[in-house]
C-alpha cells in the first residue's frame, strides 16, 4: 500500500458545540466527479450534517459555488443555511438573497459555450442560471479554448467577473465572495458569538479563510495547495467526513504521524 504523505498543516480538533461551522461542498464534503451533476453524496452524510447542525444549535452552513437551488437538490431533504454561487446568494434565518435573473445575452453566451464544449470531448458547461461554468476536468486539452471563450464572453457583458477554480472558470455577476457570506452569517444568530470554522479546498475559499483568520477562527484547507491562508489541513473529502464524525469513515492512510 502506498501511504500518502501527511499534510503540512496541523489537523483541526473535532467539532465542538461552540462552533459556527462553514463547509464548502465540492472537493471538501464530496469528491469531485467529471461533471458537477455526477457527484455522489455518500450514504449517511445528510444524516450526519443534520445531527451536527442540531448539536451546533443550527450554526452550520454550506458555502459553495453551486446555486442555492442546486445545493437543496443535492442534499434534499436536508435544507441548511447556505451561501451559493461563491457568496452571491445567501440564505439564513433572516435573509434569502438570490442571484439576479440571467439576461438574454448571458443565455445566448451559455448556449454558445455548450456548443463549444460539444467540440471538446469531456469538457462541459454548468448552467448556474445567473452565470455559467466551463469545466475541463475530464478534458485537459480543452483548457485553452474554454479560458479563451470565458475571456471573450466577459468582454461582452457588463457587471460580470471571472471566477477561476480547479479546472473550471466561471462567469458570474459581480458582487459577493465566500468571505463576505461567512462574515454576514457571523453577524446573525445562531452563528454570532461562536468560534468560526471554515473548511474548503479551492481558490475561491481563500476569502473565507481570511475572514476566519481575522476572527481568530479555524481555517481548514482540504488538500495540499501550497499558497493558502488556511492554518489547518485535512487530506481529502473522506478525511473531512471522518473529521466531522461520520460513521464508517475511518480514514487510515497508514501514516503513523497521524
Ligand atoms: Mg470546493
TrEMBL record:
Enzyme class of the recorded protein, top EC level: hydrolase
EC number: 3.1.3.12
GO terms, biological process: trehalose biosynthetic process
GO MF term (any one): trehalose-phosphatase activity
Cofactor(s) listed: Mg(2+)
Keywords: Hydrolase, Magnesium, Metal-binding
Entry keyword Transcription: no
Protein name stated in the entry: Trehalose 6-phosphate phosphatase
Lineage: Bacteria, Pseudomonadati, Pseudomonadota, Gammaproteobacteria, Lysobacterales
